[in-house]
Specification:
81 residues, 2 helices, 32% strand, globular
């Protein structure tokens, strides 16, 4: 899965990457402001092909690096085809 870095989301104060795999849409984001309580942590949002959404806010999962979050998303998509 290739991830494309988008522009900074000034409304949400995050840097966001987007990608697709097996008709799942994936967004990985991290806050860019040092004053944010989740600064340096990565969160995900996965939209399933039929529209329902799984995200790290509901699951209370945050990752320390982009690669950890990316690997988790790939694993989740492969297990939940």
């Amino acid at each position: 899965m290739k991830m494309k870095l988008l522009e900074r989301n000034l409304w949400g104060d995050t840097d966001t990457w987007r990608g697709r795999k097996n008709n799942h849409k994936v967004e990985i984001e991290t806050p860019f402001r040092e004053t944010d309580e989740n600064f340096g942590k990565y969160s995900f949002r996965i939209q399933k092909p039929y529209g329902s959404i799984v995200n790290s806010y509901k699951e209370n999962l945050y990752f320390d690096s982009f690669n950890e979050c990316y690997d988790f998303c790939l694993k989740w998509i492969n297990e939940n085809k």
